[in-house]
Each structure stands twice: as structure tokens, then as C-alpha cells.
Amino acid sequence: MHRSFIIGFAIVTLACGTAALGQTDRVPEAGPVRALEYAEPSAEQLIDQFLEALARKDPDALHRLRVTETEYREILMPTSVPEGQPLKQPSKELADLAWGLIDQKSSYYEQSLLMQYGGLQLRLKDVAYGKGEKRFAGYTARRQLRLRLEDEASGAELELGTGTIVEVAGRYKFVSFIRD
Asked: What is the pTM of this model?
């Protein structure tokens, strides 16, 4: 199978839900979905932390802004179904493939972001989501983040495109930095 097809498949799996893709066991409806650890209380604060990590050229801080493997597998994947639908557990193979691709590509994007924007003091001018907002059973995804920024040193206006932000139980993290 062509690698770009597999990567696209894994990303679409998360973006569109995993309802019909490699599902094995149904996960019963449960109480509230547990919260993401070390997440921010708003998308705006998450974006501020993102810009601060870039300004400090801090790869660890940038990486911590993304969901962990456990959060992806245990919170996002089972709840990537339409609201009101029973939760579903994807097959281990699909979960392994999807997480592996998202994590690997995001790691590359983290390096690219640090090379391109690291050390710059950037002022946020505008936030947009190129693919809008989509609600799932356990989270809301704000897809294709686009930031309009100003480099405070030069006054130049920049546009930074990156991945998806999720909100789970009132807390926000990046799923990935992939410019989906």
C-alpha cells in the first residue's frame, strides 16, 4: 500500500471518527470522559503556550502541548464517533498505525516549527480554523489551525499553519502539529 495513502488514512480516521474503521469491541457508554493531563483551560491559552515554546526554542515544552499516546488511544479513539452514538474501541492494529503515523509526523513538524519560528517573539493577530470545528462523542476538534502573527523584531507579518486542537472536558491540547 502506498505510504502517503496510509498516512492520509490514519489522519482521516481521527478527523472523521473511527466508527466504521477496524472497530472490534464496543465500549459501553460511560460517565464523563476523563480529562487530558497538563492541558490548558482554553484554546487561546494553549496557543499562547505554543508561541512561548517556539520563542524559547523549547522542544520539550512544544511536545508536551500534544496529547500523549495513552490519551490518544484511551480518550480520543474510542470517542471518535458522532455524539449520541455508543463508544467503540478500534482494533489494536488500527490504533498502532494511527498513533504511530500521527506521532512520527508531528515529531517532524515540531522540528520544522522550531527551525522556522524558534527564537522569534511572535504576536498573535488572528486565529482561524481552516476546517472548522467538529463535535464527537468525547471531544470537540478544531481542525487546521491557522495563526496570523507579527514578528515583533521586524514587524513582518507571518502565517503559521499547524494541526488540530481538541477540547476534552473543558481542557485543550493539540492532537498533532500536522498541517492537515
From this structure: 0.82
